[in-house]
Amino acid sequence: MCSIFKGESDQFAAVVPHMLEGLRKNDRYLYISDGLEKADLFERLMDAAPLSEETLESRVSFYTADEVYLRDGRFDKARMLGFLSDERDRALKDGFSGLTATGEMSWASRDVPGVSDLIEYEASINLMYPRSSADLLCQYPEADIDTATLVKVVMAHPKVIVRGTVCGNPYYLPPETLISYATGVVTPDVLERMEKDLFSRSVLSEIGALEARELKRARLCLTMLDEMVLKDFRDRLSAVSFFNELALGTCRDDDTAAHIRSADLKCEELSERLEALRMFRSCMEAPTEWQSLDGIIQSAVDRSVNGSRRVTMDLGSHKVFASSAADKAFAALVSGVAERSQSGAQISVRARTSEFGLTVTVRADGSGVPEGAKESLFDQAGPCVCGRSLCLARELLESSGISVREVGVPGKSTVFEIHVPVPRYRAV
Questions:
Q1: What percent of the chain has a predicted confidence (pLDDT) above 90?
Q2: Cα atoms in the Cβ-side hemisphere of radius 13 Å centred on 194
Q3: Where does 2-185 sit in CATH, by number?
Q4: Distance CA 233, CA 361 (A)
Q5: pLDDT tens string 33-71
Q6: Could you please report the per-residue DSSP string of 93-137?
Q7: Element holding 48 (H helix, E strand)
Q8: The domain 288-427: what is its CATH number?
């Protein structure tokens, strides 16, 4: 894939996650620089994840563009493809899982021999897949490369990172097609492939439009169900609870009174679940956006304990890409910790980064969760806390790519561990 970036922050919003993912996969990382110093690169990585300089030295191969792309003062596409293949083989031989690489392509703006073969080279890289154990990112500065070249660059890459977001590329052309354009030799099979692609895209567009209509109908049905059926159900449950209260006031038989109380408890539990379902539906329809982690947690604490418990927070300065209703899911987790902790016990919320992402823990001392009951906390039939089902909370977070589990020590503490993967958070 390639990254078209405007400035330095835009550039490294793509490069750093790409590098961390390669290191996480136990790949050797290859960086080809056309200006960046190795020390500056390592500093950026160590700021983003707990990596030592020794680790980076052993796992990152650093070259300059003059050593690789422009060796002997010219660009040679065949030599470059051979270099990438050799580096991949060397990484596998040294015990790595594969090769992850990136190259700064600003050198392509210079008038050097062989630079006219750039697009053919970019297209040819795709012929290495799917046999290749390599993951490549080409970095193109928008200000330095002419627009015509950038358009062809986009056509050469199945995925393009735009403003830090990985985008599937509808403008991508298969290598043979793009090479035929670049060399000026267009054969009839190119037109045939284009016709097949046009037909496939047309069919997919029709399917997408049909699914959108079906989704709209399903949403309308859910709205009608909520307004007509569930509302009526809630009203009837309220009426039953009212009559139960009247019956308890006049009942003189202990067994009958116990039965009424049991029925009233069931009505209350069912009302909570209906409210949780209504809340979950509204949450799932909320947009996904970049939000301050501190703001999410503070809102969750206000919703769940509202001053009844002392809560300490150590979150740093981070933003997460999540549902705008994520604070409601976190509120359920804070409530779950409070319910299972000692009365008045302090609740702590901490955030820590690693090479795998951002981990947020919500913790308090108390009875904890028995080992065999940890996963059942998140069952559909699991407990509702303050009208918020932990099952629904986890579903809401997972819809944003965020996972949650309970990792406390039974009999000592309750700890919810929330993991935000690298592409879903960033330091502020």
A1: 43
A2: 12
A3: 3.40.50.300
A4: 37
A5: 999 999 999 999 998 888 899 999 999 999 999 999 999
A6: HTT-S-EEEEEE-GGGGS--TTGGGHHHHHHHHGGGTTT--EEEE
A7: helix 38-48
A8: 3.30.565.10
